[in-house]
Specification:
Elements lengths: L5 H20 L12 E9 L2 E10 L7 E6 L2 E10 L3 E5 L5 E7 L5 E7 L9 E7 L20 E8 L7 E8 L2 E8 L2 E2 L3 E6 L2 E6 L6 E7 L5 E7 L4 E8 L24 E3 L5 E3 L9 E7 L4 H17 L4 E9 L4 H14 L5 E7 L2 H7 L11 E5 L5 E6 L8 H19 L19
Parallel strand pairs: 20-21, 21-22
Antiparallel strand pairs: 1-2, 1-8, 2-3, 3-4, 4-5, 5-6, 6-7, 7-8, 9-10, 9-17, 10-11, 11-12, 11-13, 13-14, 14-15, 15-16, 16-17, 18-19, 20-23, 23-24
Length: 439
């Protein structure tokens, strides 16, 4: 199924619904249908697998309602728009995707999760949803006693055509209920919710980006065997071994400057089309935080949630920040829309630039001082002299507990240290020397 250019399509859909309603009812227009307030259970069909998710709707009418995705303790709110008398459109905030559904006569929802990226081909994910069902996988009273308690840390090894680095799962089990997070070098899975039934386990998550599921078996020797599905036709097998000492590669050592470099420089357009360079006077003598992000990337969003309020609180101390966005379409006009949505939703006061198409090889080409580009997001911290002092790959969100606290502490300690350093006396003086190569 081709991705639908939705705004045009919804206008036609709305017109069709209104016209057909008028024909059927004569002069009397049918009443607009509503979504019942309360908790719902939805089910996606992902790679021939059912992926359940839960959400809550609040609001006496759709125009003032809030659609909230529920994942463990995490809550993500979205605005609901009406399409005609019996359909809804729920934009996934800064992600260029939406849930589009019809409210059936029996009150259920029947629809699709659609990409809204212009010109991007891909299949939609169909879903249905029923009101009043608070469970995710197993109806109350139908649980089977779990064969083991999976609480703890697990090292997960994945098998695919391309080499996939090991991941680390942090799980918590209370009776049949299972929650947790999967960490990898690019970031974390956000909070997952699921169950253990006998010797089988399953976890799912849907926070706005593509829904995902991890499911498998607990083997006789205590190891795990399973498969994960994310998006459309994306299945990857994995094995798991419980290991309290399991760790990912050091995120501070994955990306670094090539030998002979101390500095970084670039020029990209901002959202008005103006060329902005790290060597501009605005940044001289300042500590500068560079974020390489994409609005399609959930870990980038979580990192923005961390950085934006931090920057607004600390800007007067002599720090600047730049977000370089690499988007799903190589178009400044498209980036103005997507990155503009990100700016507005998270009150971003620092510069946002457009780097081009979301492609790791392209990032490496446009930032040739880096040894390689591993993940969106990547954080680069530059001191008052213009030297790169730290590069952090990925992002560990609040759900990771100790890992997030360690990151937050180290980030603030380094920034305090760099901001306390004296700015060079030549900070406002331009130089003709190459900005990228270290001296």
């Amino acid at each position: 199924m081709k991705t639908i250019k939705f705004l045009k399509g919804t206008a036609l859909l709305s017109a069709g619904l209104l016209f057909s309603g008028a024909v059927l009812a004569g002069d009397k227009e049918p009443a607009a249908k509503v979504i019942k307030e309360g908790v719902w259970r939805g089910v996606f069909n992902v790679s021939e697998t059912q992926v359940p998710f839960n959400f809550e709707f609040k609001g006496k009418d759709l125009e003032h309602g809030t659609f909230t995705l529920l994942n463990g303790t995490r809550r993500d709110d979205f605005h609901v728009q009406r399409l005609g008398k019996d359909s809804v459109f729920i934009k996934m905030n800064t992600y260029d995707a939406a849930l589009v559904a019809k409210i059936e006569d029996n009150g259920t929802l029947n629809g699709e999760y659609r990409s809204l990226v212009p010109g991007k081909r891909g299949n939609a994910l169909p879903f249905t949803a029923e009101y009043g069902k608070k469970y995710r996988f197993v109806e109350p009273g139908k649980d089977v006693a779990p064969a083991a308690n999976l609480s703890g840390k697990w090292e997960l090894k994945f098998y695919s055509k391309e080499q996939v680095p090991n991941k680390v799962a942090i799980l918590k089990q209370n009776g049949n209920k299972l929650t947790g997070v999967i960490m990898q070098v690019t970031g974390d899975s956000r909070e997952l919710e699921g169950t253990v039934q006998g010797d089988e386990f399953v976890l799912s998550g849907f926070t706005g980006p593509s829904p995902k599921i991890y499911k498998g078996k607990i083997n006789a020797d205590g190891t795990l065997s399973g498969v994960t599905s994310q998006g459309i036709y994306d299945n990857t097998k994995f094995d798991g071994v419980k290991d309290d000492k399991a760790e990912l590669p050091d995120p501070y050592k994955l990306t670094y400057l090539k030998e002979g470099y101390k500095k970084l420089d670039f020029t990209f357009p901002d959202l008005t089309g103006k060329a902005v360079s790290l060597s501009d006077d605005k940044y001289k003598g300042k500590v500068v935080i560079i974020e390489i992000v994409g609005t399609w990337c959930p870990n980038c969003t979580d990192q923005t949630v961390f950085l934006s309020p931090w920057f607004n609180k600390n800007q007067k101390r002599g720090v600047e920040a730049i977000a370089i966005g690499f988007e799903q379409k190589d178009s400044l006009a498209y980036a103005q829309y997507t990155l503009g949505k990100l700016r507005d939703k998270y009150n971003i006061k620092y510069d946002i630039l457009f780097g081009g198409l979301a492609d790791k090889k392209l990032v490496s080409q446009k930032l040739p001082a880096l040894n390689k580009f591993v993940a969106f997001p990547t954080t680069i911290i530059i001191d008052r002299k213009g030297d790169v002092r730290e590069i952090y790959t990925g992002y560990t969100g609040t759900v990771t507990g100790k890992y997030y606290k360690d990151y937050e502490k180290k980030f603030n300690t380094l920034l305090d240290q760099l901001l306390a350093e004296e700015a060079p006396s030549t900070a406002a003086v331009k130089t003709d020397e190459p900005a990228q190569k270290g001296k």
